[in-house]
Amino acid sequence: MKRLLVLALLLTAAAGDIHSGYDDASPETRAMQDDDSANPGFLWVREGEAQWSGKACAACHGDARVSMRGVAARYPAYDAALNRPITLDQRIAQCRTERQHAEPFTPESDAALGLSAYIGLQSRGMPLQVSTDGPMRPFYETGRTLFNTRMGQLNLSCAQCHDERAGMKLAGAVIPQGHPNGYPEYRLEWQTMGSLTRRIRNCMVGVRAEPFPPDSAEMTALALFLAARAAGLKIETPAVRP
Amino acid sequence: MIARRRFVLTAAAGTVLPVAATASHVQVAVLIRQLVGDAKLAEGRVKLDLPVLVENGNTVGMTVSVDAPPGAVHSLHVYAEANPLPEVCHIRFGPRAGVPRIQTRIRLATSQTVTAIAQMHDGTFWQDSVELLVTLAACID
Amino acid sequence: MVRVLLNVPRQVRRNEPFDVKLLISHPMESGQRRDAVGLAIPRDIINLLVVTYGNEEVLRMDLFPAIAANPFLAFSMTAVASGTLSITFTDDHGVTQSETATVEVV
Question: Known catalytic residue: A203?
Answer without folding.
Answer: yes
